[in-house]
Write a structure and sequence with these properties.
Layout lengths: L15 H14 L8 E2 L2 H8 L3 H13 L3 E4 L3 E4 L4 E4 L6 H7 L4 E12 L2 H6 L7 E11 L2 E11 L16 H8 L4 E10 L2 H7 L6 E11 L2 E11 L3 E4 L5
Parallel strand pairs: 4-11
Antiparallel strand pairs: 1-3, 2-3, 5-6, 6-7, 7-10, 8-9, 9-10
Amino acid sequence: MPTQPTATRDESPAPLYARVKQMIGREILTGNWPPHHRVPSESELVAQLGFSRMTINRALRELTAEGLLVRMQGVGTFVAEPKTRSALFEVHNIADEIAARGHRHTCQVVLLNEEPAGPQRAVALNLREGQRVYHSVIVHYEDGEPLQIEDRYVNAQAAPHYLEQDFTLQTPYAYLSKVAPLTEGEHVVEAILADPEECRLLQINPNEPCLLIRRRTWSGRQPVTAARLIHPGSRHRLEGRFGN
C-alpha cells in the first residue's frame, strides 16, 4: 500500500516548500506513489506534515509545473504518467535515446520518395524552386507505442543515396551523420494539434496537444535537412540546461 510522506522538521537550510517537494518527490521516485496514485489533499498534507497551507500549495504547484503531478479541478491531484525526455538544444539519434532508457526502438517507413522543392522547402534548404529533394516520413515507436513522426526533407546534393537506404535498420540521423556530419542545427518548438493522418499514425485523439520541433541542419555551409518532428504531448517532454 502506498505510504504517506513524513514530516522532518530538522535544521535543513532548504525552504519549507522545497522540503515538501523533496518528500513528495521521494515517494514518487521510490515507487511508493505509482503513476495515477491520488496524492493527499492540501488539507491532508497540512495535517500530516505540519506545514502551512501556503507552503503545501506552492510545493504542489511547482511539482505540477515540473510534470511530476497532475491536478484536476474538483477531482484531486495525482502522480503523472512518466514522460520520455529529449534534450532541447541537442540532436540525438532517437533509436539511441530509446535504447538508453532500456526500451526497444522500431519504426515504420510511411513515405520515401523524390519531390521537386516547393517554395518553402527551397528556402529552408537554400535550393532553387523545383530542384529535387528527398522526402521521408517515418513513425518511431518505443516498445510498440508511437513516439514520434519524423517528416524530413533532405537536400539531394548532400545525401545522393538517401532513397537507397533501409531506414528500418538505421535511422536517417545515423545515415546522415556518416555522409553529411552535422555541424550546425536550428530548432523551433511549437505546441500544435496534429492533423487527422498524424493522429492516426500516433494513435492519439484529435484534441490531444502535440509537441512539434521544426529542425534544420547543416554540414559545413551546406543545408542538409529540414524536418518536422511531432510528439504526442502526453508521452514526451523536452528539457534544456543553460550555463554561462
